[in-house]
Design brief:
Rossmann fold; globular; 11 helices; alpha/beta; single chain; six-stranded mixed β-sheet; seven-stranded mixed β-sheet
Length: 363
């Protein structure tokens, strides 16, 4: 797992009093303290956290932010709000020696502005996490910066591929924070979202959807499959659709050995972090599918974190996300086409060169 880039620290923590188990991986701090969210899922592992931390190293370098790469995870199988608060705060206290100098936390799966508030309260350091509530001078994850960036990355890729966005059919796997905002902004640009899925299933409607109705369903605790118009399928059926653009926007490794051969989309824009392993991504590329990697497409969240770190407001943050992601996606696609490499290879080459140069300066 180690190479010339890192990781610098792998920290495992456990609190037997409440059963809290967590991981922190600080991958590389050449550009500054490692920046990455706190993932709270039942099956998060040290390996997953490392893969996510490495993606953050490249993401921050590409976006030219003064952060290194890091990530953390708490094994969370659900429970009361009080128990969740105890887990978050126990974790924050356990990793406190690394905060600010080596690690700055942020939102991720099952951890939003409320959890970041709990985190900084336990750490007794407001800058120990970003994505905090606005009342704490934060730019919360709930503003949708990641999904906003994914939508703009997708729009650039659609145009680069010679497609008309107003005739483009899109499927979005996952209807959480990233998926909902990617849906909203792509629809505003004229794309037709024909399929959406969540943990309960997938709904397909050739005519598209009313995003307000979908959001109302989710807010009331229902599933996208409760939408009144459309065909209902199992959640994995979204990977079988012959759409122009597929956006995996949920969790790790949703595209895998079981469903990789079913993919029929022309373009995949990785809204989620590491939605597939690199060997599967390469297999799909060889079949002619254009794939924009996660650390290019979904860097809106960490760009927002930087804006919060600087004390900027939401309007300036969104301008920065659009500007950086549009430029970055164009650069990666142009380099990919010019040098006949995958977008991931092109992006990695740029990111690695930046990190190596910075590491040499710090020696």
């Amino acid at each position: 797992m180690t190479d010339k880039f890192g990781p610098e620290y792998i920290v495992k923590v456990y609190n037997p009093n409440i059963g809290m188990k967590g991981f922190l991986v600080v991958d590389n701090t050449a550009f500054g303290p490692g920046k990455g969210g706190v993932r709270m899922t039942p099956n998060v592992t040290e390996e997953e956290v490392f893969r996510l931390a490495r993606a953050m190293t490249w993401k921050n370098a590409l976006a030219e932010l003064p952060f290194g790469g890091a990530k953390s995870g708490i094994v969370w199988s659900g429970g009361s709000s009080d128990l969740k608060k105890k887990h978050i705060q126990s974790f924050a206290l356990a990793i406190k020696p690394f905060l600010l100098k080596k690690y700055i936390a942020g939102p991720d799966v099952s951890a939003g502005e409320k959890e970041m508030k709990w985190f900084v309260e336990a750490a007794k350091a407001r800058q120990a996490a970003t994505g905090k509530p606005r009342a704490m001078a934060g730019l919360p994850h709930e503003l949708g910066s990641t999904g906003f960036g994914v939508a703009h990355s997708a729009a650039v890729t659609i145009q680069f591929s010679g497609l008309d966005i107003k005739k483009t059919k899109v499927a979005i796997e996952g209807f959480g924070n990233v998926g909902t905002f990617a849906f909203k902004h792509l629809q505003q640009m004229g794309a037709r979202i024909v399929a959406v899925s969540d943990s309960k299933g997938m709904i397909f409607n050739e005519e598209g959807f009313d995003v307000r109705k979908l959001l109302a369903l989710k807010k009331s605790g229902k599933s996208v499959i409760d939408y009144p118009q459309g065909q209902k399928f199992g959640r994995d059926a979204i990977f079988d659709l012959a759409v122009d653009v597929l956006i995996p926007a949920s969790v790790t490794d949703v595209i895998n050995e079981k469903n990789k051969n079913n993919i029929k989309a022309k373009i995949i824009v990785e809204g989620a972090n590491i939605p597939m392993r690199e060997n599967i991504e390469e297999e799909l590329r060889k079949k002619g599918i254009l794939i924009i990697p996660d650390f290019v497409a979904n860097s809106g969240g960490v760009i927002s974190s930087y804006a919060e770190y600087r004390g900027w407001g939401a309007e300036k943050m969104f301008e920065l996300v659009k500007s950086k992601i549009t430029k970055l996606t164009k650069t990666v696609l142009e380099e990919s086409a010019k040098n006949k490499k995958s977008p991931r290879e092109a992006a990695l080459q740029i990111a690695q060169a930046k990190v190596e140069a910075k590491m040499k300066k710090k020696k």
